[in-house]
Amino acid sequence: MGQGAAPRRGQAYDGELGAAVARAQQGDEAAFAVAYRLVQPGLLGYLRGLVGDDAEDVASDAWLEIARDLGRFRGDGAGFRGWTATIARHRALDHLRRQRVRPRSSALEQDVLELPGPQNTYDLALEAISTEHALELVRGLPRDQAEAVLLRVVVGLDGPAAARVLGKRPGAVRTAAHRGLKRLARQLGAESVTDEAPRTLGEST
């Protein structure tokens, strides 16, 4: 998969994924390869947001567990994405503990005093989220916001599914995703202004 590839989503996607998983559970190796191809882009993007350059190694560990426990899975395509994201998250947290990296704790924020940004700033964040640079910015968010954004936007889980992965209420995940996207949009906007500043100074001299 190219690093800039975006995960596929939608009913047709989940239908194809669910059918592939069902065949894979009956021993069809080609079907498992199809499921891998459909899930891996989003899963890898999620892991890049959690562990950075170690995402490939963590994803490999996760897929070994997914293959081992595939027979235990019960559900449809959307459920499979949530199940694989849960496994990947556990492997990522194990990896962080082994590296003795303390995950960022959720910071108390003063968002009550902030007005929502224009909708196009969220569109900007959503369009950029699949790039390596944007994933690096996501890693700088408080952990609850980063995971909510990654699960909703990169993996493509709905609110309840993301909440199950994180062990939180859907409302809390929606709020965290909203705050994370707003912060990301502000960062992207600030970088855009910074990039334009030298040209403006050059024109005035």
Main sheet makeup: none
Judged by helices, strands and strand pairing, the structural class is mainly alpha
Q: Output the CATH topology of the largest domain.
A: Rna Polymerase Sigma Factor, Chain: A
Number of domains: 2
* Helical content (DSSP H or I, runs of 4+): over 70%
CATH architecture of the largest domain, by name, is Orthogonal Bundle
The SSE order reads HHHHHHHHH
Sequence stretches where pLDDT stays below 50 over 5 or more residues: 1-6, 101-124, 193-205
Principal-axes geometry comes out as: globular
Number of helices: 9
Strand content: under 5%
The N- to C-terminal Cα distance equals 46 Å
Mean pLDDT: 76
Query: How many DSSP-defined strands?
Result: 0
CATH superfamily of the largest domain: RNA polymerase sigma factor, region 2, helix turn helix motif
Q: Report the top-level CATH class of the largest domain.
A: Mainly Alpha
Rg over C-alpha atoms, rounded to the nearest angstrom: 18 Å
Domain RNA polymerase sigma-70 region: 36-100
Domain RNA polymerase sigma factor 70 region 4 type: 135-184
Protein name: RNA polymerase sigma factor
InterPro entries: RNA_pol_sigma-70-like, RNA_pol_sigma-70_dom, RNA_pol_sigma70_r2, RNA_pol_sigma70_r4_t2, RNA_pol_sigma_r2, RNA_pol_sigma_r3/r4-like, WH-like_DNA-bd_sf
Q: What is the strand and helix layout of this fold?
A:
Blueprint: H1 11-25, H2 29-51, H3 55-69, H4 77-98, H5 119-128, H6 132-139, H7 143-155, H8 159-166, H9 170-204
